[in-house]
Amino acid sequence: MTITRRNVLLGATAAAALAPIAARAQTSEVVIGVIYPLSGASAQIGVDAQKAFETAADIINKNYDFELPLAKGEGLSGLGGAKVRLVFADHQADPQKGRAEAERLITQEKVCAIVGTYQSAVAVTVSQICERYQIPFISADNSSPSLHRRGLKFYFRAAPHDEMFSTAMFDFFDAMKKKGTKIDTLSLFHEDTIFGTDSGNAQTKLARERGYKIVADIKYRANSPSLSAEVQQLKAGNADVLMPSSYTTDGILLVKTMAELGYKPPAIVAQDAGFSEKALYDAVGDKLEGVISRGSFSLDLAAKRPMVGKINAMYKEKSGKDFNDYSSRQFMGLIVMADAINRAKSTDGEKIREALVATDMPGETTIMPWKRVKFDDMGQNNDADPVLLQYVGGKFVTIFPPQAAVAEAVWPMK
Amino acid sequence: MDKDFARRRRRELIVAFCLAAVAALVPLFVKDVYVQNVMVLTLMYAALSQSWNILSGYCGQISLGHALYFGLGAYTTALLFTKFGVLPWFGMLAGGVLSALIAMALGYPCFRLRGHYFVIATIVIAEIGLLLIQNWDWAGAALGIDIPVRGDSWLKFQFTRSKLPYFYFALALACVAWFVTWWLEDSKWGYWWRAVKDNPDAAESLGVVVFNSKMGAAAVSAFLVAVGGSFYAQFVSYIDPESVMGFQFSLLMALPAVLGGIGTLWGPVLGAVILIPLTELTRSFIGGSGRGVDLIVYGTLIVLISLALPRGLVSLFARPKFFWRKAAVR
Amino acid sequence: MTAETIIQSLASGLLMGLLYGLIAVGLALIFGLMDVVNFAHGEFLMIAMYATFFLFAFFAIDPLLSAPLVAAALFVFGAVVYLLIVRFAVRAKANAGMVQIFSTFGLAIVMRGLAQFFFTPDYRSVTNSWLGGKTISVGGIFLPEPQLVGALVSIAAFAGLYFFIHRTDFGRALEATREDAGAVALVGIDKNRVFALGWGLGAALVGLAGAIMAIFFYVYPDVGASFALIAYVTVALGGFGSVFGAFAGGIIVGLVEATTALILPPSLKSVGIYAVYLLVVFVRPRGLFGSM
C-alpha cells in the first residue's frame, strides 16, 4: 500500500484537515467508486444500478453525438482523454459495511470520487467517510432530506429530496383543487424505515401547512407478511387521495390487498420507490391504471430530446428495462461527477469539490426534466424539479408541472 | 489431575497474554486502513462472541437475541451523548448496567423455558426491542442517530481517520471477555454449569444456586455485549435500529463461537479470526457481482463446519483437553 | 372504528392465520418426529413459491393445479435435505442442538444465495391466475378467494394429516419412531427411511402453502424471511411437535396480528404476536398443546 507514514500520522492526530490521501498523478484512467446493495434483500436495485452506471461510463468513454456533457469525444478531455473506470462495492444495506467499503475504495482502489447508495442509512456513513478523506460524494438516488443538512462539505445531491418531491405533490393538489377537483382528505401509508419515515414526516408537515386533512396515517412494518389490517384502516378512512411510500414488495402486496378488500381510492399519488419499479407493474399493473407517482425521470422527454430515447435504449439493452426514477438518477449522478472531474482537470478531492460547487449544467443537457444542475451551499440541487407521472395505458405520461406535462391528469383514476 | 489442571490454566493465561501482545503489535506493521478495519471488527466479534458464549455456551442457554443488549449499549451511549452531552465512557457504563439489569429481569421468567422455547423467546424479545426503538421518535426512530464527529478526541472517543484507538479498545474488550471466561471456567459457577450441561438431572439437586448463577451469567454476558454495542456506535458514528438491533446481529454474535467451538475458552476467538475476515473479504471481492456467490460460499462453510466439527474448529487443536474433560465428568 | 372494520379484520386475520398454520405445520411435524427445528423452513417456502411461479410462467399451469406438483417436488427436496444434511446433524456427537440449528441455518443462506444466482434478485409475481385478485363479498365483508381457498386447503391438509398419522401404516410408523426410535429398529423399520419420509412430508406441506401463497404474494430470494419467524412462533405457541398445536397456533397468530393492528400503530402489530407467545410460554412452558 502506498499510504505513507506521514499520512497515517496526520490522520491519527488531526481532524481530516489538510491531508488529501495521496497525491494522484494524472493518469489515463479516472477511478470512481460506486457503492450499492449487490446482495441481500435489495440486490435487484444494485444490479440495475450497475447497468445504469455502466451505460453512463460507456457514453463518457466512447464518442457519442449527444448533447450530454462528455458524450462527445472519448474519455475526459480535461484529463487528456482519460477513461472513467468504475469500481463497484457491495454494502448489503448495512451502514457499517458501506462505511468500510467506502474506506476500502478510497485507500485501496484509489477512487477519486464516490457515487451511491440507494439506502439513505448507508449514505449517512459513506458521506461521513468521504468527508474525512476529502473525497467528493454524490448521493445519486437517496431522497432523505436530512442528508444534505449535516454540514458536510463533500456531499452533493443533484436529484430532488423527499420534501421537494412531496411539495410537488401538494402543488399538484392545489392546482387540481383550483380546477374544482375535490381534494380535502389524505391517507398516508408509509413503511417504517428511513425512506417511509422521512416521506411521512414531510407529507404530514405539508398537509398541515396547506390545510389538507389526514384521515389515516398508517406506518407499517416493511416486508410485512400481510397488509390486510392496514388496508382495512385505509378503507375506513376513505380519503380523497391515498399517498403510499412503499418499496416494491410492499407496493405489490398493498395493491393486491386493496383489490381483495374492495378498496378503491379516487386517486393514488405515490412517493415513487416501488411505484416506479417494473416488477410492480408486471405484477399488478392492471389494477394501477391511473396511478400517479412522483419521479425525476420521464420517457416523454424523448420527444423533445431525442438523446433521452437513445440513451434509454442503450440502458434497456443492458438491463432489459426502461430507465426508471432510480436508474435515471444513478445515470445522472455519474455524469455530474465525471463532468466535475473533467472541469477540475485533476483527480484531487478538493479540486473536484471546487468544480462541483461551480457546476452549472443546463437542464437540456441532461436526461432529466430538471431546470439545471447547480448546488446550493449544502450541496443540494434545488433546481431539480420533480415531475408527476401518471400510469396510463401501460406507460407513464407526465402530468405535472405544466411546463413538462404532456397530458392532463385523469382524475379520479379508473 | 489437579496439578495438571492448574498448570494447564496457567499455560492458557500465558498463551493468551502472548497472543494479545502479538496482536497489539500488528498495527505497527499493517497500515492499510481497510485491513485495520477488518481487524477491529474481528476483535469486536471475538469479544461479543466470547461474551455470548458465557451464557449460551457454558450455561447452555442458547440466546439468539443478544442483539437486544448490543443495541441497548449502542443506543444508550449515543442518546446520552447527543441529547445530554454525556461522554461515551459514561454512556458505555450506563448501557452495560442497563443491559445487565434487563438481562436479569428477562432471565427470571425465561430460564424456566427449555430448548427451542427459550431460543424463540430470546429472538422474539429482541424483535420487540427493535420494533419499539424503530417507533420511538425521540430516539430517532428509523432515522437513527448520527453522532457528530468533530476531530480526534480520546475524551469523546472519536477519531476521524485513525483506526488504532478503536483497534486497541476492541483488543482490550476481547481480552476482558476472554479473561472473564477463563476465570469463570474455574469458578463455582463454571463447575455447576458443566455439571448441569452434562447431566440435566443434576440441575434438580442444585436448583436455586444454578438458577442464580444463570442470572449472573446473563448479567455478565449482557454487560459485555452492551459495551461492545457502545463501542460500535462510536466506531461507526452512526446507528439505526435495523443495523444494531436486527436479528442478523444476534446470529453474527453466535456464529464465531459455534464454528470455533461453543462452550470453549478459545472457540469464539478462533471462530472470529477465521469467519470475520472471510465474510469481509468475500463481500468485498466477490460480493460485487450481485449474484449471491458470497452467500453460497458463506452458507456452505457454515453447513460443512457445523457438520464435520460439531465441537468446533478448536477440536482440531485441542483433542487432549476433551479427553480430560470427558474423564473428569464420567 | 365500526363493527364492520372489526369483523373484517377478524375475518382477514382468521384466513391469514389458517395459512400461517399450513406454513408452520411442516415444522411441527418434523420437530415432533425427531426434535429438530429446521431453520431453513422459510427458504423451503421460498423454493415452493419459485416452483409455482416458474410452472405458471413457462407452462401456464395455474397454481391451483400445480400445487400437488410443487408439494411432490418439495417432498423429494425435503427427503434429500434430510439424507444429505440433517441425517449427519442429528448424529453429531457433541452440541447436537447447536449443530442442527446452524447446519439448517447455513443451508438457508446457501438456498438464498442459489436463488439469487439462478433466479436473479428480481421480484416475481403470478399474474392472472384463476383466483388472483378475485374476492367474495358477504354482507360488506370481503373474503379474498386466494386466501379463502388457502384456508380451505389448510383445513383439509390438517384433517388429512390427522387421518394419515392415526390411520395409515406409515403414519403409525412415524408415531412409533417418534416415541421410541430404538424399538422400531427391532421390528424392522428403518429409522432413516421414516425420518426421510417425515422430512419429505413436512416439506410437501410447506410446498402446498407456497403454491397458494404464490397466488397473492410476491416471490424473491429473501421472501422466506418474512414468514420464518412467524412460523417458529406459531409452532412454539401451539407446542412443538403438536400438529393440532400448529393449527391452533396459526389461528391465534392470525387473529392476534389483526387485532393488534386495530389497537396499536400497524408497524407494531408483530409486538402483539410476540407478547402473546411470551405470555403463553411463561404460563405453559411447552406451549398450548405441547406434551408436558
Explained architecture:
The complex is a heterotrimer of chains A (414), B (330) and C (292). Chain A has 414 residues and is α/β, with parallel strands linked by helices. Chain A folds into two domains: 24-160 and 302-383, Response regulator (Rossmann fold), CATH 3.40.50; 163-295 and 388-400, Response regulator (Rossmann fold, 3-Layer(aba) Sandwich), CATH 3.40.50.2300. Chain A contains 13 helices and 14 strands. Chain A has helices at residues 5-13, 43-61, 95-107, 120-133, 162-178, 194-210, 228-237, 248-260, 278-284, 301-304, 306-319, 325-344, 349-357; strands spanning 29-36, 83-90, 113-116, 137-139, 155-156, 185-191, 213-220, 241-245, 267-270, 292-295, 361-362, 372-373, 387-392, 395-400. In chain A, the strands form three sheets. Chain A has a seven-stranded mixed sheet with strand order 7-6-8-9-10-13-14. In chain A, α2 (43-61) packs across α12. Chain B has 14 helices and two strands, in the order αααααβαααβαααααα. Chain B is globular, with a radius of gyration of 20 Å. Chain B has 330 residues and is an all-alpha fold. Chain B has helices spanning 2-29, 33-58, 67-84, 88-110, 115-134, 164-185, 188-198, 200-236, 241-245, 247-260, 267-286, 293-308, 314-317, 319-329; strands spanning 145-146, 238-239. Chain C is 76% helix and 3% strand. Chain C has helices at 3-34, 41-59, 63-91, 96-119, 145-167, 169-179, 181-186, 191-216, 223-238, 243-263, 269-283; strands at residues 135-138, 141-144. In chain C, a hairpin with a 2-residue loop joins β1 and β2. Chain C is globular and about 60 Å long. At the B-C interface, α5, α10 and α12 of B face α3, α4, α9 and α11 of C.
